[in-house]
Amino acid sequence: ADIKTMTAHKVYAMSVITALTAQNTTGVYGVLDAGADFVGQQMDCVFKDIFPDAVKIGMVSNIETIQMIAAKLKEYNAKNIVVDPVMVSTSGCALMQPDAMDTLISVLLPMGDIITPNIPEAEKLCGFEIKNVDDMKKAAEVIGRNLSGSVLIKGGHLTETADDLLYHDGEFMWYRGERVNNPNTHGTGCTLSSAIASNLALGYDMKTSVQNAKNYITGALKDGLDLGEGSGPLNHCFNL
Hints:
By secondary structure, the protein is α/β, with parallel strands linked by helices. The protein has eight helices and eight strands; from the N terminus they run H-E-E-H-E-H-E-H-E-H-H-E-E-E-H-H.
């Protein structure tokens, strides 16, 4: 999803694999960590050769990998860092070891220029339930207290709307979106965060990057691709 999204934005994607997953549209059936040292080697290979204009971080399943990623980001003075705090898959499978949450919050999230939690992830980060748009604003403020970057809370889990909330430089900005009637939402979070990173790499400011990414994912959902027995993937190439 990350590489397809970046390709659709006409930027060049370079991957650092943190874990292999055995998964399809019906669920996640196994996770094999790549190991922190190997993650570090991959990051060295990327940063020493083709320095990235933006970095998107998704699934990081354990403490050692999180610490390695943070150390390498500091070492290379990485810019335009987008952190998608992936904790649970679309199908409901836990993708992070329970003891890794504190390290994610204290070490990695503060390094992000923007973090992009969905509502269940934001609830874990703020410590209370989010039932409506007022709760989203309160959560964004609470989460943003410990961060220097922006917070984008994705509203797709609310029943009435699909509005996203950006908390940027102490200001709230709503991104209104129509709720697309498409049950195939596998990888929407990965796709949105990668689209934001792509736009930042292309030189757009934060607010514009989020808007462009929101438009892109709406288009990918509206395309109506229908694959697999469960929650299928989006058509990342709808615009090509």
